[in-house]
Amino acid sequence: MDDTRKHSAFAAANEAHAHLASARKHLIGQRLPLAGMHRDLEKAAADLSAARGKIEEALQAVEASRLQMPAGVSD
Questions:
Q1: pLDDT tens digits for range 11-43
Q2: Could you say which DSSP state residue 44 is in?
Q3: 37-68 and 3-27 helices, crossing angle to 10°
Q4: What is residue 47's predicted lDDT score, i.e. its pLDDT?
Q5: Any idea which of 2-16, 34-48, 54-68 has the lowest mean pLDDT?
Q6: Residue 3 and residue 45: Cα distance in Å, rounded?
Q7: Half-sphere exposure of 29 (CA within 13 A, CB side)
Q8: Cα-Cα-Cα-Cα dihedral sign, residues 20, 26, 28, 32
Q9: What is the distance in angstroms between the CA of the first residue and the CA of the last residue of the chain?
Q10: What are the CB-based long-range contacts (under 8 Å, 24+) for 22-28?
Q11: For all residues of the chain together, what is the average pLDDT?
Q12: Prediction pTM value
């Protein structure tokens, strides 16, 4: 895997992890206690959607690298 794609995949996966952590906090009500559960659920949905996008970005970088690897080569 070339360094550019590796860093891109890592950055996207790291951002997805942050969005998932935020969504967990919203789902248990730790983020916006004064805004109410409705607002927490809205934020959790937004965080989960953002995480899905970042996961897809990371997958694309990894798949692109896998497709460019010569047959029989493994890291």
A1: 999 999 999 999 998 888 766 556 667 788 899
A2: H
A3: 160
A4: 97
A5: 34-48
A6: 32
A7: 6
A8: positive
A9: 8
A10: 22/47, 23/47, 23/48, 23/51
A11: 86
A12: 0.77
